[in-house]
Amino acid sequence: MTDDHGQRPSNRQLAGKISARLTHLIATLYPDERTRPGYARLAKEIREVTGGALSSTYLWELTTGRKHNVTVEQLGVLADYFGVPPEYFFNEEVALRVNAQLQLATALRDAKVRTLALRAEGLSGETLDALLAMVDQARKLHRLPAVEEPAPKDTTADRRPRP
Residue 161 — pLDDT band, cuts 50, 70, 90? Predict the structure, then answer.
């Protein structure tokens, strides 16, 4: 495995990536810090859901980047628990794709966001563009950051009647 410059990343660099991505997954699964489980409870949940054993101390060490020798088996247990591919922890492209999916899943937790999305289904492309412009303007008024999205896929083929 090499980085963007063709060099093999150090154990510390890999530990930093794993730490950052594990922290992100925990924060995504438990967005409210006040109700976020501690490492002991999280390790217990991981054991119960996956059957894999990670101690609370080990989980803390991974999350804080203090542990540098994570095994493939341990990454597999974490990946199973969080519902991500094991490559998520060290592959930038996979992490970007999964994070986009997590962002969508997080947004869809809100009933009003789900309702808005469901009501928009079937509207014309022009109408959807107008709604997106209104939402972007509302985000500016609320001083929320702009949402960066990949280029939209052409869905005209999806809307053609089927024979």
Answer: very low
Digit-coded pLDDT (tens) for 116-155: 888 999 999 999 999 989 999 998 999 988 877 655 554 4
Rounded to an integer, what is the distance from CA 88 to the centroid of its chain? Answer: 9
Backbone angles phi, psi at 8, to 5 degrees: -75, 125
Tell me, what amino acid is at 27? A
- DSSP for the chain, please give it: ---TTSPPPPHHHHHHHHHHHHHHHHHHHS--TTT---HHHHHHHHHHHHS----HHHHHHHHHT------HHHHHHHHHHHT--GGGGT-HHHHHHHHHHHHHHHHTTSHHHHHHHHHHTT--HHHHHHHHHHHHHHHHHTTPPPPP-PPPPP-TGGGSPP-
pLDDT in tens, 20-61: 999 999 999 998 889 999 999 999 999 999 999 899 999 999
What separation, in Å, do the N-terminal and C-terminal C-alpha atoms of the chain show? 47
